[in-house]
Specification:
The structure is a homodimer.
Chain A (H helix, E strand, L loop, with lengths): L5 H8 L4 E2 L2 H6 L7 E2 L4 E3 L4 H14 L3 E4 L16 E4 L6 E5 L4 E4 L5 H8 L4 E2 L12 H7 L6 H4 L2 H4 E7 L5 E5 L11 H5 L8 E8 L1 E2 L3 E9 L2 H12 L7 E6 H11 L8 E9 L2 H17 L3 E6 L2 H12 L1 H6 L6 E3 L4 E3 L5 H14 L3 E7 L4 E8 L4 H20 L15 H7 L4 H11 L17 H4 L1 E2 L6
Parallel strand pairs in A: 3-5, 4-5
Antiparallel strand pairs in A: 1-3, 2-21, 6-7, 7-11, 8-12, 9-10, 9-11, 13-15, 13-16, 14-15, 14-19, 17-20, 18-20, 19-20
Helix pairs in contact in A: 9-11, 9-14, 14-15
Chain lengths: ~475, ~475
């Protein structure tokens, strides 16, 4: 650990906004990924000028700076693998402007997603890129990862909603990218480049976001499938069927069994479940879309078709999906639910094949993997349930992840749909984008010549994620 | 003019694909902007390997390369202000794949927008970013400018539709950016950076584009306004009204008078006209949106409200807008319709104020300016009608353009909505993005270290567009 000039940091951001207590450092040493590495110090700025002061100091002293929101990232983006300052942005959490006539809002990066939507609600609008972690995830973190979520199939990802950004560069310069207008063709769109850059190019201190009307009607449906492949065909037909669902989710049998085992929900023990939703201002249009989706499910042997507009009924239908994370966590005393190969995107027509591949690979390597996700966006998630205390299980997981990503590349899929790269997915990322890594490094140098911003991530992360950092699990020697 | 090695070029791209006849060079010396500058040679590659060979040669010899589609750009993007090779991409015009289940197509850059949509139609889908020039504009040119058009309010701009790009870098390296999937969070999104980069970063040789279903119902409405400001208020209310029009167009009195004068259409001589459209798969939903828009127009004193689903009726309603360009061209023997300050985007609430400002500035400088555009996207277009033979009119136009762009910046608008920067809008662009020009130059260096790709444009264009190149009009001394 570098000997940090704590008094100087306190001068820059205030006495109470600097922490180097080991207990705090420990907390900031992990996120929702498998990784752990301790920062040297935690700094919590309250305003842009403090971020500028800090970035000037850090650049002069060549100290790594890791920007962090709520630490719900799944690939180790905010784990300080090279040490340095963790910049906790949750202190900058003000909503600066809500402008309904011009259809945008301006927020600081520490605003929590659900809090923004709570503030937007009285205006009859919402901010669509809502990840499963929206109760804690910050707008800044979502920008860092180009987060999306269940509604991305209709409403797009974070990049689609960001109109402009203010960022602080290493050295302290404040830059303004983008606009407050709906369209722009004014040179390189640097704000779009910042989205998904995982804190490697600049520190976001303000975002201008567009929002959309809250639909008056929302209808959620469900179909059971005895064969995963049938569910996959239904997805492809729905997406080519001339409609735009507001949600289209796949849940596999591994997940269903986990939910039934731990939550006692009594879901039918089928091979796959599809959840489909339509929303809109006019009930007839929602009816139409739901009917198309039911027809496509029925055509491919979907059974138990049901749907409802009623909020309570919808919650019941969605229960299996909603309880998936806690169910996986409680699956067994021995098994932990780990974020590994947790996120990929594939062409629609390959959804079922991908899920099947995941199961096959898991079986072969003696681990448990579930496949689920926002299949309307081609997004496939997995969790690996494994005995994290056993080194052999990590070796198996490493092989399984490699095989799955090799397969994903072979079908023109991509390494991440919405969780980003960080450390865990770096090897797959480097294989997928092999020919543009040098260009990405050149771009990083243009923003961050001394490489202080989140060093050692994405194109600069080690190839083996198992040994890249300590693991945040106790592993028997 | 540099002494070009014509035999070498013919070796690279084939005997018949190299032209240096002065008549050809003259044609390729201008586009739809006011500028003129001759290329040294025109090269028309037929395949990617030829582009690679050419880019290797040009980079070694430090020869400027200007990529060109149909030359319908309005700001001089394809005018070779520094000479060099004009790379005519219209020879690479194949549609490589149409994939309905995975909802994407792959095309070469020379494909004309309307041709792509013609090919997509049997599949029940369309490619939405359709500029007014879609009969001639190529997909490559639209990517270069981040083109959009009347339907961008609902369907977004080119950047929103591009999933992936293959580009050739100076030196000849072929790179693949992006994916074939709907969402992606896999590192820096270089394909999104290429969109709107006006041929300064690489030569696009293939694009993967998403498409959307052709709506079954389309209804177009019209409202007349005695006060431009009322039309502006109607626009802001519509955009905050919980609906998503598929088109929302403003036409001002200058344009109406021009159409009436030259086309004898007998349109009501009102201060402004709004055209509003809704489309969808369900008639009730389209009815609902049209009714909301009619109500908003009526609330703000709109009169003569009419709407129709019928294709012929819709064509009649749209006639005034459609005839705008030819009407302006034929306005008078003395006046030419020039693309200057032709394109900006402003917040919705400032649409009317912006149009009024444009009229005021024009009057003060003794030129004629019309204001119209895709106000649902905040996009405002103008044309300057002026006596192009008079130097004094160019001086007036220069002042008018400067004043208008200064105003646009003051209300948080942006220099270009969809036509790009090129040469004509460089001074406004440089003022708007002053603090990020150096960063843009660094990014360009990362892609193009020898600055051969479209040099002297955007951040590197001269401040005075009037003297930046020859004008393509005869101006009396």
């Amino acid at each position: 650990m570098k000997n940090m000039d704590i008094p100087r940091l306190k001068q820059i951001v205030g006495e109470n906004n600097v922490k180097d207590d080991p207990a705090d450092l420990f907390i900031y040493g992990s996120d929702a990924s498998v990784h752990r590495a301790m920062p040297w110090v935690i700094v919590r700025p309250e305003k842009t000028s403090q971020v500028q002061g800090l970035m000037k100091f850090a650049d002069e002293e060549r100290i790594p700076v890791i920007t962090r929101g709520s630490g719900s990232g799944m690939c180790g983006q905010t784990v300080p693998s090279h040490g340095g300052i963790t910049l906790d942005m949750k202190g900058m959490n003000r909503i600066l402007e809500i402008n309904p006539p011009d259809v945008y809002c301006r927020v600081q990066p520490g605003v929590v997603d659900d809090d923004l939507n709570h503030a937007l609600k009285p205006h009859g609008v919402f901010y669509p890129p809502t990840p499963a972690s929206s109760r804690t995830a910050t707008i800044g973190g979502e920008i860092g990862n180009n987060a999306s979520g269940v509604r991305s199939v209709k409403y797009g990802a974070t990049r689609d909603s960001v109109l402009g950004l203010k960022i602080v560069l290493p050295g302290g310069k404040l830059m303004s990218f983008g606009t407050r207008t709906r369209v722009e063709a004014t040179g390189y769109q640097l704000h779009k480049l910042i989205v998904g850059s995982e804190g490697t190019l600049g520190v976001v201190v303000e975002a201008t976001l567009k929002f959309v009307p809250i639909p008056k009607f929302r209808c959620l449906g469900l179909a059971n499938f005895d064969r995963l492949e049938d569910a996959g065909h239904a997805v492809a037909d729905i997406m080519a069927g001339g409609i735009t669902p507001s949600m289209l989710e796949l849940v596999d049998n591994v997940a269903i069994k986990a939910v039934n085992k731990t939550m006692n929900l009594g879901l039918p023990d089928v091979d796959a479940v599809l959840l489909y939703e339509s929303d809109g201002m006019v009930k007839e249009a929602v009816d139409y879309e739901i009917n198309v989706m039911k027809q496509m499910c029925a055509k491919h042997n979907g059974t138990g078709l049901q749907s409802s507009y009623d909020a309570k009924e919808r919650a019941k239908i969605f229960m299996g999906r909603k309880k998936l994370f806690p169910a996986l966590s409680k699956f067994s005393e021995l098994h932990a639910s780990t974020s590994l190969a947790d996120d990929m995107a594939v062409p629609y027509s390959k959804m079922a094949e991908t899920a099947r591949k995941i199961h096959d690979v898991a079986k072969r390597h003696n681990i448990i993997m579930t496949a689920y996700g926002h299949c309307g966006s081609g997004c496939m998630h997995t969790k690996i349930l494994m005995e994290t205390s056993k080194q052999s299980q990590w070796n198996s997981a490493r092989k399984a992840v490699d095989e799955i990503y090799e397969y994903v590349r072979s079908i023109n899929g991509t390494t991440s749909a919405e969780h980003g790269i960080g450390i865990s997915k770096a090897s797959a990322f480097k294989a997928e984008k092999a020919d543009s890594l040098e260009l990405m490094r050149s771009i990083k140098r243009a923003f961050d010549p001394n490489n202080i911003l989140n060093p050692g991530k994405m194109m600069d992360a080690p190839d083996d994620w198992v040994t890249a950092t300590d693991l945040r699990y106790m592993v028997d020697a």
